[in-house]
Write a structure and sequence with these properties.
Pfam family, one: V-set
Strand order of the largest sheet: 1-9-8-3-4
Structural class: alpha+beta
Number of helices: 2
Number of strands: 10
CATH architecture of the largest domain: Sandwich
Order of helices and strands: HEEEEEEEEEEH
InterPro entries: CD300_family_receptors, Ig-like_dom, Ig-like_dom_sf, Ig-like_fold, Ig_sub, Ig_V-set
Subcellular location: Membrane
Strand content: 25-35%
CATH topology of the largest domain: Immunoglobulin-like
Keywords: Membrane, Signal, Transmembrane, Transmembrane helix
CATH class of the largest domain: Mainly Beta
Protein name: Ig-like domain-containing protein
CATH superfamily of the largest domain: Immunoglobulins
Radius of gyration: 44 Å
Helix content: 25-40%
Oligomer: single chain
Length: 218
């Protein structure tokens, strides 16, 4: 009974072994672009594929390329990494005719787990390889928000550091002033002590008799 429940969950419950990846990729004519898609543990042993989407009312696949020992057909290759729970699709030497809608999918019993990917090809000089993974599907507005938040936090930090620096400068100036005052005081004390010593020396010389007379008959 339990295996039947698990099988039913795999086929019916949404989000079980969900496949995640970018919704669109782009490149210039002649470019090589790639995308990475991640999947759940339940889809680890299933075949992965890439195909062109055709049809309007009922979407179908055309030119399907499956992952496997070779996983390559023409300019398209699909490489699965079960240990990392992700697979990579590489599109080489893009042409304007390649632009369109594609399916990135995984074969399952019943309905496949797949999502649509829009490929945009621009005319022009070939650019460096563009690679997108499942994390690239996030809204770029989050990046702008994070950069704005970083620039916003730099102002309060400056306001906090400025008083600290001023306080340190004041403490340093106070310390230097105290040191200078102490040095001057020591010099004055030394000069005063030297003056007193000279005065005592002069007094001792003035109190000493110039000569002494002795009268033996007295």
């Amino acid at each position: 009974m339990r295996p039947l429940v698990l099988l039913w969950a795999c086929l019916v419950l949404p989000g079980y072994g969900t496949l995640v990846g970018p919704k669109e990729i782009s490149g210039f004519v002649g470019d090589t672009v790639s995308l990475q898609c991640t999947y759940g543990e339940a889809l680890k042993t299933h075949r992965k594929y890439w195909c062109r989407k055709i049809g309007y009312l009922i979407a179908r696949c055309s030119g399907t390329v499956f992952s496997g020992e070779y996983g390559q057909e023409g300019r398209v290759s699909v490489h699965d990494s079960p240990r990392e729970l992700r697979f990579k699709v590489i599109l080489r030497n893009l042409t304007l005719e390649d632009e369109g809608q594609y399916f990135c999918g995984i074969q399952r019993l019943g309905l496949d787990d797949s999502f649509s990917v829009s490929l945009h090809v621009f005319p022009g000089i070939s650019r460096p390889t563009t690679q997108l993974d499942s994390t690239s599907a996030k809204d770029t507005s989050l990046v702008r928000r994070s950069s704005t938040a970083k620039s916003g936090t730099s102002i309060p930090m400056t306001r906090i550091l400025a008083p600290v620096l001023v306080l340190l400068a004041l403490l340093l100036a106070t310390g230097l002033a105290a040191l200078g005052s102490w040095v001057l005081q020591r010099r004055k004390e030394a000069q005063l002590a030297e003056t007193e010593r000279k005065e005592k020396l002069q007094l001792s010389h003035s109190n000493t008799p110039l000569f002494s007379l002795s009268f033996p008959w007295l």
